[in-house]
Design a protein that fits this description.
This protein has 456 residues and is mainly α. It contains 17 helices and no strands. The radius of gyration is 22 Å and the shape is globular.
């Protein structure tokens, strides 16, 4: 199998389709699952939160298992591609079931919600983690991987725009089907919307399967010891640094996201403005993502990430100084997202480089485990950040639905949207300083590994 570095436009677009498909699943969970449980299923917010939290804990078990299994998969289609074609249909079916409202008693509804939520996370892990790992074996070239992941996250953010921006209108449209009086059936509306997303996800995962190739193979002499995989994983210093950075980054994202609606409702005084804030930020990311590859070619992965985190952190912090001036608030947010965008594909490129480092320095390749463990760190960071955001609000004496919040509560909201995420993200530059894979090392690593693979 060839180790050709260059990827065609068709293959990059085809690969990006997989993250568009993933967004149809995961963003339904992120944006709509709690609403579905409370307002349609009729589950209390406390129990709904417990089900979501249990899902995060379950990820701690499932993600590494999927990484280990996929690393040991060998088929005529490769290690990771088979999961896209054979896993997408079960994932789509479980997605629909998770957003279906059965005629059970209250206890049965809770059990049904919990079981389908855990099944959905399991099915998603068995498709999305191999999908993420696929980028590491499509090409051995780090710069090409950055370009590949740039396409990926343009598609991902487009998917997020669809799910976050259009799903509510789709639910209302489908909810009126079959109703002569135009009454919206919310349960039907969300189920039909999810059915459409499920079908689209199968189609886009198939496109990814059909248009991509696995070119990079693990060392032939490598044994299958799981214990050794974990032992060498934690000896992989670049991977450890990236895992810490991922953890901090997602704590920052979750804290800011959880507080944004409170910030606009109680401080800005216009809750609906949060939609414009989010949409403009997402569009800014989509437009700025193509800068990633040329910047990497000029300055290298490490330097671009460090600059991105510092500059973005500064602009996030400046939101605090913008006060209630919406023009300035949105301007600083847009600039922060533009500065942040080049780092989005980089973290995935660098995880793939860390997997190469494991093979180069430690003679052990564990791509699936590298990606699954890093994704787990991101999920833990998200859970910590979401919880920490509520703790800050509680400590600042926030009162739900109060017409006037205390100055302390307002200050807590402002800090959660600006200074705290700004400082946290800028601090990633400190940890990234310990990342040892600079452009020169990556180049030498590629030469040595290409020679080794050619010999094999």
């Amino acid at each position: 199998m060839t180790n050709s570095a260059k990827l065609s436009f068709k293959e990059k677009v085809g690969y990006s389709s997989g993250d568009l498909a993933s967004r149809f699943v995961w963003d339904m969970v992120n944006f709509w699952m709690v609403f579905f449980y409370t307002d349609i299923f009729g589950i209390s917010p406390l129990i709904a939160g417990a089900i979501v939290a249990a899902g995060s804990i379950w990820d701690a078990v499932v993600d590494p298992v999927v990484g280990i299994i996929s690393d040991r998969t060998n088929t005529r289609w490769g290690k990771f591609r088979p999961y896209l074609i054979f896993g997408s249909v079960p994932l789509a079916i479980i997605l629909v079931l998770a957003f279906t409202t059965p005629a059970f008693n209250p206890t049965g509804m809770i059990i049904y919600a919990a079981v389908t939520a855990l099944l959905l996370r399991t099915a998603y892990a068995f498709v999305n983690l191999p999908y993420s790992s696929l980028s590491a074996v499509m090409t051995p070239d780090s710069v090409e991987r950055t370009g590949l992941n740039t396409y990926r996250f343009i598609a991902a953010n487009m998917g997020q725009l669809i799910v976050s921006g259009a799903a509510l209108y789709m639910m209302a449209f489908f909810g009126k089907w079959g109703s002569s009086e135009g009454v919206v059936n919310q349960a039907q509306g969300i189920q039909y919307t999810v059915m459409l997303f499920a079908v689209l996800s199968i189609i886009f995962f198939y496109i990814t399967f059909k248009t991509t190739k696995e070119r990079v193979q693990p060392p032939k002499e490598q044994d299958t010891s799981i214990k050794k995989d974990f032992k060498y994983l934690f000896k992989n210093k670049p991977w450890v640094v990236l895992t810490v950075v991922s953890l901090i980054s997602f704590i920052m994202f979750a804290m800011q996201n959880s507080a944004t609606v409170f910030y606009f409702k109680y401080y800005i005084g216009n809750a609906e403005s949060v939609q414009l804030f989010n949409v403009l930020g997402t569009i800014a990311i989509i437009l700025a993502l193509p800068m990633s590859k040329p910047l990497v070619k000029r300055f290298g992965n490490k330097n671009v990430f460090i600059a991105s985190s510092i500059i973005s952190g500064i602009f996030f912090t400046l939101i605090f100084a913008a006060g209630r001036n919406l023009i300035l608030v949105n301007t600083f947010n847009i600039l922060a997202k533009i500065a942040y965008a080049p780092a989005i594909p980089l973290i995935w490129t660098m995880i793939a480089d860390a997997a190469d480092f494991g093979e180069w320095k430690l003679n052990r390749r564990y791509i699936g485990l590298c990606f699954s463990a890093a994704v787990f760190a991101q999920k833990v960071g998200w859970a910590i950040g979401a919880a920490a955001g509520t703790w800050v609000l509680a400590a600042s004496n926030y009162v739900a639905n109060a017409e006037i919040q205390t100055p302390e509560a307002i200050m807590g909201m402002k800090l959660l949207v600006s200074v705290i995420p700004g400082v946290l993200y800028a601090s990633c530059a400190i940890f990234m300083a310990f990342y040892t894979l600079d452009a020169k090392t990556i180049h030498q690593m590629k030469i040595d590994l290409d020679a080794k693979r050619a010999a094999e």
